[in-house]
Amino acid sequence: MRLALFQPDIPQNVGACIRLSACFGIELHVIEPVGFTFDDRAMKRAALDYGPLGHMTRHGSWEAFQQNRGPGRLVLFTTKGATSLSGFDFQPDDTLLFGRETAGVPDEVHAACDARVFIPIRPEARSLNLSVSAGIGLWAGLQAIGV
């Protein structure tokens, strides 16, 4: 199972996902462009010393990611998802894709995904934080496949 972030805007979210990668031993893919520089102090502070334990790959574009992402389904987490997280059947080689904090993903990315999942939240709430969503989705996926 892998995490992928589509053009993230906030370095702290990427830092938190680096920590997820390190703590759970999974790959993290960051699809550029991003809304910050990778030497940003805030991202380094958020990742602390977990960077060397993480498995992060940066992709220069959506197309580069698609060419190099590896086998398995691309599962988009979205507020416009069709399947609730609790009803989704994860597979070990799934790549869990999370959209940009400010804009989600464009239509062509939606169309390229094999599945769309949403995390149920209260109707009056707009959305969860990106790294919180990634942690919830990853944990659910790993539990579902018995890891």
Structural notes for this entry:
The chain is α/β, with parallel strands linked by helices. It has a single domain, classed as Alpha/beta knot (3-Layer(aba) Sandwich), CATH 3.40.1280. It is 33% helix and 20% strand. It is built from five helices and seven strands. The longest helix is centred in the C-terminal third of the chain and has 15 residues. The protein starts with a strand and ends with a helix.
**Most strands sheet:** 7 strands, parallel
Structural class: alpha/beta
The domain tally reads: 1
> Residue ranges: pLDDT <50 for 5 or more in a row?
none
- Average pLDDT, to the nearest integer? 91
CATH class: Alpha Beta
Give the neighbour order of strands across the main sheet.
Answer: 3-2-1-6-4-7-5
Could you please say which CATH topology applies here?
Answer: Alpha/beta knot
The CATH architecture designation is 3-Layer(aba) Sandwich
Number of strands: 7
The CATH homologous superfamily corresponds to: SPOUT methyltransferase, trefoil knot domain
Distance between the termini: 10 Å
Task: Report the portion of residues in β strands.
Answer: 15-25%
Shape: globular
Structure keywords:
147 residues; alpha/beta; Alpha/beta knot; seven-stranded parallel sheet; 5 helices; globular
What is the fold's blueprint, element by element?
Layout: E1 2-6, H1 11-24, E2 27-31, H2 41-47, E3 55-59, H3 62-68, E4 74-77, E5 83-84, E6 95-98, H4 107-112, E7 115-118, H5 130-144
Parallel strand pairs: 1-2, 1-6, 2-3, 4-6, 4-7, 5-7
Helix pairs in contact: 1-2, 1-5
Give a summary of the structure in a few sentences.
With 147 residues, this protein is an alpha/beta fold. The protein contains five helices and seven strands, in the order βαβαβαβββαβα.
